[in-house]
Amino acid sequence: MDPDDTSYDGYEEDAYYDDDYDDYNNYADVIGTDSNPNHFAGRSQKSCTILKDEDISQRQEADITRISTVLSISRNEASILLRVYGWSFSKVEDEWFGNEEEVRKAVGWLHDEVVTMDHTSEGRITCKICYDSSEEFTSLSCGHPFCNECWSRYFQVSIDDGPGCLMLRCSEPSCRVVVDQDVINLMVCDEYNDKYLRHLFRSYVGVSEAIKWCPAPGCKFAVEFDQYKSESFDVLCDCSYGFCWNCLEESHRPVNCETVRKWSIKNSDEAENVNWILANSKPCPKCRTPIEKNKGCMHMTCRLPCKYEFCWLCLGDWRDHKHYYSCNKYETGKKSGEYDEDEMKKEMAKKLVEKYAHYYERWAANESSRRKAIADLDKLQEKHLEKLSGIHLTPVTQLSFIIDAWLQIIEARRILKWTYAYGYYLPENEGAKKILFEHLQGDAESNLERLHHCVEDELQPFIAVEVTSQEFQDYCAKLKNMTSVTKNYFENLVSAFENDLADVECHGACTNVDAAG
Amino acid sequence: MANSNLPRRIIKETQRLLSEPAPGISASPSEDNMRYFNVMILGPTQSPYEGTFVQLLIGGVFKLELFLPEEYPMAAPKVRFLTKIYHPNIDKLGRICLDILKDKWSPALQIRTVLLSIQALLSAPNPDDPLSENIAKHWKTNEAEAVETAKEWTRLYASGA
Ligand SMILES: [Zn+2]
Ligand SMILES: [Zn+2]
Ligand SMILES: [Zn+2]
Ligand SMILES: [Zn+2]
Ligand SMILES: [Zn+2]
User: Fold this and answer.
1) How many domains does chain B divide into?
2) Residues A15, A78 within the same domain
């Protein structure tokens, strides 16, 4: 039932050496089955291959073998050349056959003399880094000796510092000999060896346009995507994080990368809040406390202890205003265009902020709801599924439709979330589109709410207490049905959005008879 | 303060810096932090950074600060000019563009070698690898004028006071 574990390894090995990407496509189809959260949105989810450490290492090893055979050099040397030339065969070969001497010089493989160690009078050597004499010294092919402790510290500091550790040279300042992996292996502990390997893997992925690291925090997988030159696409990592190949943001289908970019800038933009303050509050002319306007009238009273009464429009003393609710200064100012523009700008800013707040609130609510759904799904898989299986004498595998329901919810929340970003940018003058948009969105949303309620709340009794099997059977049928109805609604929503709400009339929400009943 | 457990290497380097200073360079650790050095470099002769002789040498004294990070000598010291200087490889904040302070650092290099390299950089500005774009441009388009500015700045700021 879990396709992630089937035929992965053997398949991958065969596929790799084959330049024909069809193999990857088939492979991706294999994983693209039910437990794939984005499965139903799979139409634009193009084939991709997940590369784990072993896979990258395997590829690197294969490249190293190839270069070491072609150039008749050691594997260590081949590895260094590949790193220097960004894991490109053609570059390594061009450079090597173009001017082997130069290449050898660049990586420090040309040295006239091998250094012999200077011994102190007592027959010991002093390390040129720590100035101590120690028992254990190591040198690279050049013969420059440094104590093992210094090598080890040097490697650790460099590994912590970043990918520069892949191109370390002999500690003798004038010496160009590159440190090879074996020496590092010997000198540092497992923890640092692992870190070093991570840098090594990363260096491999950095050079190919078809491979990217999964941007999920803590995820160590790389994703290979053969259609990277096409438009943006959602890809799904084995860690279950779906992201956009193009902009590396979390999957945002059906809205495009540009909308996502604008939206996230908007969200981080404090200017909105500043505008809001501007539109809704003014400092008391006497004590400077910001006073918020929350009523229609212009008569403002500052907080205790100030209690200064002033006019919202002109900030003048309220007592000077002869006619209640009317500001003479404002009226005259309006005539001369003094206050008018200012006030209009503030009103506009306020409206814009209100609009943004409306969409943002819903965007954020769906996101947090999605996160909660992910957590709930985890909980279900961790314990509730077993329990249900025990109570209702049903194999866990036959309860997978509950997982499907949750996955559907998670994906639908994601889509719905992005429709709110879309909605915010939908031009005000596109009235018809807006109506359709809200109609589609509303239908999809209410279906989703029902499904969410059905699996979140209505399932509880079946976990907690014994009920008749008939009741449980009915529930199962209902949930399955609801899942598929919601799926349809969201598929329609997505395709409508992807057509930019053109021709929605023909296949809008109405094509789905509400079969859930 | 942070002076307990000072590695033998730092102690030795410091002793040697004090007992056999390199020509035109002085470096002495601060009293409360042995990893922090007050440095003075004399502008090299024949460079726009040299002082003027009026019976005795006046000016051309550049102050720097040098700090040995915890990782030293596995990581390079941090060095910065405190005296304003007009030089294509040194920026407004006194930061220095020098390969051995970055990717070409090797743990067998020393404070002494670093300071000698900085002194050499004053003799041979490298506008092709600039840190201050404007100064580098000036240097490339009108070297004579740029050198004049550098001399002017040396007079104005590098008095050693
Ligand atoms: Zn040592
Ligand atoms: Zn060496
Ligand atoms: Zn991942
Ligand atoms: Zn994108
Ligand atoms: Zn008024």
Assistant:
1) 1
2) no
